[in-house]
Amino acid sequence: MRNDLNPTRVLNAVRNLGILAHVDAGKTTVTERILYLTGTTHKRGEVHDGTTITDFDPQERDRGITIFAAAVSCDWDGHRINLIDTPGHVDFADEVERSLRVLDGAIAVFDAVAGVEPQSESVWRQADRHGVPRIAFVNKLDRAGADLDAAVESIRQRLHPAPLVVQLPIGTEDGFTGVVDLLRMRALVWADGSDVVEEQPVPDDLRDEAHRRRRRLEETVAELHPVALDEFCAEHTLSADTLASALRDLTRTGDGVVVLCGSAYRNRGIEPLLDAVVAYLPSPVDVPAVRGTHAGVEQERDADPQAPFAALAFKVNATATGRLTYVRVYSGTIRKGDVVMDAGTRRGERIGRILRVQADRHAELDRAVAGDIVALVGLKTARAGTTLCAPTAPLLLEPPSVAEPVVSVAVEARRSTDTERLASALVRLVEEDPSLVVRTDPETGQTVLSGMGELHLEVAVEKVRQTHGLEVGVGRPRVAYRETMVRGVSGLVYRHVKQDGGAGQFAHVVLDVAPLAADVDGVGGAATGFAFRSTVVGGRVPQEFVRAVEAGCRDALAEGPLGGHPVTGVSVTLTDGATHSKDSSEMAFRAAGRFGLREAMRVGAMAVLEPVAEVTVSVPADAVGGVIGDLAARRGRVSESVARAGAVVVTATVPLAELFGYATRLRSRTQGRGTFTARPAGYVPAPGAVATR
């Protein structure tokens, strides 16, 4: 295909698509059958046997789910298909997001029994945001309870496109043997034990039903497509060619979704699915030119091998043989040894090798052109979202969005000698997966790993263990508590006197210590911060010593009397004092301020404060009661509940310590349809944490 001298014809024969679905709908099995039928593999891989090509990571095979997006390439009917098998679990939605950013089309796979499931809905909305055209494949028609019409209705009700069903199943459940192609009015049958499809006349018992469904398809298409409407009004029917052309247009505009059906596990329905990919999904020249900016000016680059080079990195993978950077080439041509520019850092990078990817296997290429999805070897600093471009024609493309992490765990090396190795492993982990965030808590000193869900973090930690051979401990992050004053002390006298030969130390201070007023640097429930002032008159305490007293008071705030937590929400007033002509100094008054405030905190009443977060939860209306009850069980205080566009948005203030595990709990209560965001909202007194003296 690369020998074709016409670049447009080459690009017209490329399809860049992803497989999207809820977990366990059969995405990976569909991918495996596509690879088998296109001759890319010679043995059918099975998820339950751990023999699939795209689920090659040990954790994927152990868990039986797709975790990492895997790219493969194959050929069908003179077309090059670059395929990305994406994860179906909600914790790995960021992998789907990065993949959709570089794809031109997608196959959405649905379970014929379950129909549209929660994560099916989520990935469909992601594809909507990126404007990615889709066709639908209703899988597992051989299962007990499979119902194509019910699955199609769930697509209509929950996803809202116009489903354009182009096939009629032959047989049900265990008796499912093939489909009727409603465009060509023919039967496609797969005999037991055979991988070859046989074309036959439509069975007599299905002929009337096939004609009814064909008529319904024509009417639906005519309502949506003006050219088809003209022919339908003139001829009272649509030809197969007109119907196919209209289906292609409706798919690419998103006004309709072509629906096919089959059973990937039994290898039934995959050939028509591949034909539909070629017929309906767009090539790189069918999608709008990619847009980017340079020097603040927006530019476009057409999918032209002769144009200046521009590509977007969407995945980085560190392997035993080197660092692979997966890119989508939008324009131009690159060859092995070329120097490209990182548009963000404006640094040059040399292309060591160019690889055609087959999951964990690779074939070396001499060049890559517009429309290709390939892996590059030799890039040192490129990350997911990096734009690579020709040094003479800079262009910065919009990177994939990265979701904010919602769950955190504390990680530490079991052996102190492995601490540096763990830090290096975590840095590499974040390079490969931008949805992971690593930070060191400045107060607790813990290394905190944050991600999209508990399974996401579990997989990340296990990868560190397996890849780097490290023993890693995982636990809850410690919550950063505070202490505050509940009842203050007036007129506390503290004398700091020290005489051990030579110049001594003398400082006399009188302090009023009180809770800080809520309107002074207050955030959320309790006032936070520290206020200091002096009302000393007559120069009894010189100004430089007043500043030393304030510094000493700030020193005392580092540890409170209840649990050694930092102290906040305190106001100190220096009302009087005295000095010695020889022994008074800034150091002495600083010590007096420190020990005087500590004494005041011991004499007064203190309380422990816990951090709280403002949590905004978006849930389906039928799950509101359970969600509010769960928030109450977590000591949350609901402040607002508003209905918006078919969902209910609940706002509550929840202690941060109670949010551990909430993401998983919310998904369980809402069948994966609930989402939440959290932001710090200050501190409130912890239950039963007031100490009075």
Concise account of the structure shown:
This is Elongation factor G. This protein has 16 helices and 37 strands.
Structural features:
single chain, 693 residues, alpha+beta, 8-stranded antiparallel sheet, 7-stranded mixed sheet, 16 helices, 37 strands, 28% helix, 34% strand
Structural description of this entry:
Helix content is 28%, strand content 34%. It has 16 helices and 37 strands. The chain has an eight-stranded antiparallel β-sheet with strand order 18-17-23-14-15-22-19-20. A hairpin with a 2-residue loop joins β35 (637-644) and β36 (647-655). The chain is elongated, with a radius of gyration of 33 Å. GTP binds at residues 21-28, 85-89, 139-142. This is Elongation factor G. Residues 12-285 form the Tr-type G domain.
Tell me the strand percentage band: 25-35%
Mean pLDDT figure: 86
Largest sheet: 8 strands, antiparallel
DSSP strand tally: 37
Helix fraction by DSSP (H/I, runs of at least 4): 25-40%
Number of helices: 16
Rounded to an integer, what's the Rg over CA atoms?
A: 33 Å
Shape: elongated
Parts with pLDDT < 50 across at least 5 consecutive residues: 519-524
- Which structural category do the helix and sheet elements fall into? alpha+beta
> Within the largest sheet, what's the order of strands?
18-17-23-14-15-22-19-20
- Beginning-to-end CA distance, first to last residue: 85 Å
Subcellular location: Cytoplasm
Keywords: Cytoplasm, Elongation factor, GTP-binding, Nucleotide-binding, Protein biosynthesis
Pfam families: EFG_C (PF00679), EFG_III (PF14492), EFG_IV (PF03764), GTP_EFTU (PF00009), GTP_EFTU_D2 (PF03144)
Domain Tr-type G: 12-285
